[in-house]
Amino acid sequence: MGFILVGALVVGATLVFLRPIEQAEEAQAAANRAQASVPLVSAMTVDSGSLVAGNELTLTGQNLSTVSTVTFNDVHADDVTVVDNTTVVATVPTVVDYQPATVSVEVFAGEQAVAATAALEYSYAPETAVDHQMQYLFTHWNNYNTAQYGDLNPIGGDCANFVSQSLIARGWTMTDDWYNYDAGNDWADAWGYVPAFDEWIRSHPEYGATQLGLDQRDQVKIGDLAVFDWDNDGSLDHIQVVSSITVVDGVTKIGMVGHNLDTDYRDLDTTITTDHPGATGWFWSIP
Q1: Fewer CB within 10 Å, N or C, the chain?
Q2: pLDDT in tens, 246-276
Q3: Rounded to two decimals, what is the model's pTM?
Q4: Looking at the 3D structure of the chain, how many domains does it have?
């Protein structure tokens, strides 16, 4: 018949019997050792920032070397870097649809959520010119601001009108050759007509716009402009604003927001192949 020894500890080859108080102390020590190995976030250095991705925050705590993912209301951080066992740096992703929000920040080691000493929250707010531009675009891409700028679709298309509006939201001001007054009843060609807008931005280097080819996507930023010649006849037909940039298997994918096929994340490649085979165009990169 076998025996179960209670209150015993093997030290080397010697069986040592523990008194009840020693048993309790050893159990507590074991619990403390286990607790000391558990990942824990104790602080987050930044709790607010821009609507557009790029802000960095630092998470500190203990046993963070296994951290693999940081999410903002289930949106993954663009980059997560484990600095050491106590420090993780995460690049904040763009907020959903460029609208101000306060979101929960969660940290994961593999599939396991990492505990925090307090609830982690991050507040997005429009801080930069591009923030204001994108917030405006995503407020009105399917809800036209006709009271202020009218709707130019009945007379050829509203795409340039909408892009010009977004530049006003970005901080630009109307000029004597680029304007829209009286809810779209008095507007300059450069404001609402794509070829005229393209000529206008070329003739105003003070805005700092740089022309990039469609093959220079790695230089494009959120808020830049994309113009298109649908049938490659030398006359521009359409303009939108870059709303997303992702890299998939080494290929840069561009999403666009705009009017006249009102869209929030229209895929560039689909646009120039499936929608308009053989279309050409370029970007205007805005500083």
Answers
A1: N
A2: 998 999 999 999 999 999 999 999 999 999 9
A3: 0.86
A4: 2
